[in-house]
């Protein structure tokens, strides 16, 4: 009953704020999906849902998101902006700069879409941890989120954030009430693999991270279904610009390092690393180094809690 009340209040607030055409960035993640369903219920055909493929998405992400929105009966436009994002991020290695560039390019893409549909409003799935970590409310900046600290000053759209005061567990509860397929989907950062590839964002390095992430996701899901461990709240791989000596066959090679990260959490504000069984970690390591032979020769497991570390590496 309480969750339904939150849903009703959010819809009423959206109806009071949006009196013209609006667009929403839909990543397929739980935050933007909940925001999209709420906005669709509030303003119907005034809402234009857009999915931006930045080139930093997970494996098969674009196809899965399109299918999910089709099942919900919501029209979704897919915009392939990958070349634009790679070009703007060429040579950028500072994580804060990455996030700000990604935030700006997201807005530029939506300003282009605005011209096509005449939108006056931009709906975003910003939740409380996003603006808290971005320094909202006189807090120190932990890291800018692309949809908060990464936004440019000259945004030409009125921004509406229906989930701004909610935490991740509350958003999940709303998603379950709305019967959204992604209600139990693990979190995925808005900048995507751009903040899981530390250092240069070349297409080759991003593809390596995408493959490593896919392996981690599949193997931990398999382990959980077999009862070997609980499924972590969030689990992924990051590619580090740390090269070390390895051996492939009889050859001595230098390769990069993949770090596996898996945590348990309630709302993402704090987290503990997940105690993954060694045999599962071993199989993940073997599969990653085999799949990325010649490029990655070392896999490590991150056992840092939050705090002191954040969940994502950038």
What's this, in brief?
Helix content is 39%, strand content 19%.
Record the SSE blueprint:
Layout: H1 2-17, E1 22-25, H2 30-43, E2 47-53, H3 61-71, E3 76-80, H4 82-88, H5 95-117, E4 121-123, H6 128-133, E5 158-160, H7 168-177, H8 203-225, E6 234-248, E7 251-264, E8 272-273, H9 278-291, E9 296-301
Parallel strand pairs: 1-2, 1-4, 2-3, 4-5, 7-9
Antiparallel strand pairs: 6-7, 7-8
Helix pairs in contact: 1-2, 1-7, 2-7, 8-9
DSSP summary, beta strand count: 9
* Total number of domains: 2
As a whole number of angstroms, the C-alpha radius of gyration is 20 Å
- Taking the alpha carbons of the first and last residues, their distance comes to 38 Å
Q: Total helix count?
A: 9
Which sequence of strands runs across the widest sheet?
Answer: 3-2-1-4-5
Order of helices and strands: HEHEHEHHEHEHHEEEHE
Going by helix content, strand content and strand pairing, the class is alpha/beta
Main sheet makeup: 5 strands, parallel
| DSSP strand content | 15-25%
Shape: globular
Please state the average pLDDT score: 90
Could you say what the CATH architecture of the largest domain is?
3-Layer(aba) Sandwich
CATH class of the largest domain: Alpha Beta
Query: What is the CATH H-level superfamily of the largest domain?
Result: HUPs
Classify the fold: give the CATH topology of the largest domain: Rossmann fold
Domain GMPS ATP-PPase: 1-187
EC number: 6.3.5.2
Binding site for ATP: 27-33
Pathway: Purine metabolism; GMP biosynthesis; GMP from XMP (L-Gln route): step 1/1
């Amino acid at each position: 009953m309480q969750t339904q009340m939150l849903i009703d209040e959010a819809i009423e607030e959206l109806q009071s704020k949006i009196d013209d055409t609006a667009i929403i960035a839909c990543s397929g993640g739980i935050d933007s999906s909940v925001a999209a369903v709420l906005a669709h219920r509030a303003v119907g055909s005034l809402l234009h849902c857009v999915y931006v493929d930045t080139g930093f998405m997970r494996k098969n992400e674009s196809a899965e998101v399109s299918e999910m929105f089709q099942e919900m009966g919501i029209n979704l436009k897919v915009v392939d902006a990958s070349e634009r994002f790679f070009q703007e991020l060429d040579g950028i290695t500072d994580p804060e700069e990455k996030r700000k560039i990604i935030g700006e390019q997201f807005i530029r893409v939506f300003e282009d879409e605005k011209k096509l549909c005449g939108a006056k409003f931009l709906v975003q799935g910003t939740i409380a941890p996003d603006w808290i970590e971005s320094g909202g409310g006189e807090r120190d900046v932990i890291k800018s989120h692309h949809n908060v600290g990464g936004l440019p000053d000259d945004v030409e759209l009125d921004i509406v954030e229906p989930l701004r005061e909610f935490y991740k567990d509350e958003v999940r509860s709303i998603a379950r009430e709305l019967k959204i397929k992604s209600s139990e989907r693990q979190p995925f950062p808005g900048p995507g693999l751009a903040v899981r590839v530390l250092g240069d964002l070349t297409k080759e390095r991003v593809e390596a991270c995408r493959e490593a992430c896919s392996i981690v996701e599949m193997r931990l899901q398999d382990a959980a279904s077999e009862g070997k461990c609980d499924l972590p709240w969030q689990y992924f791989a990051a590619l580090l610009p740390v090269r070390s000596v390895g051996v492939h066959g009889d050859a001595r090679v230098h390769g990069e390092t993949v770090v596996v990260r898996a945590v348990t959490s309630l709302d993402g504000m704090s987290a503990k690393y997940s105690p993954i069984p060694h045999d599962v970690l071993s199989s993940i390591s073997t599969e990653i180094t085999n799949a990325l032979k010649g490029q990655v020769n070392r896999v490590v497991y991150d056992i840092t809690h939050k705090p002191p570390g954040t969940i994502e590496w950038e």
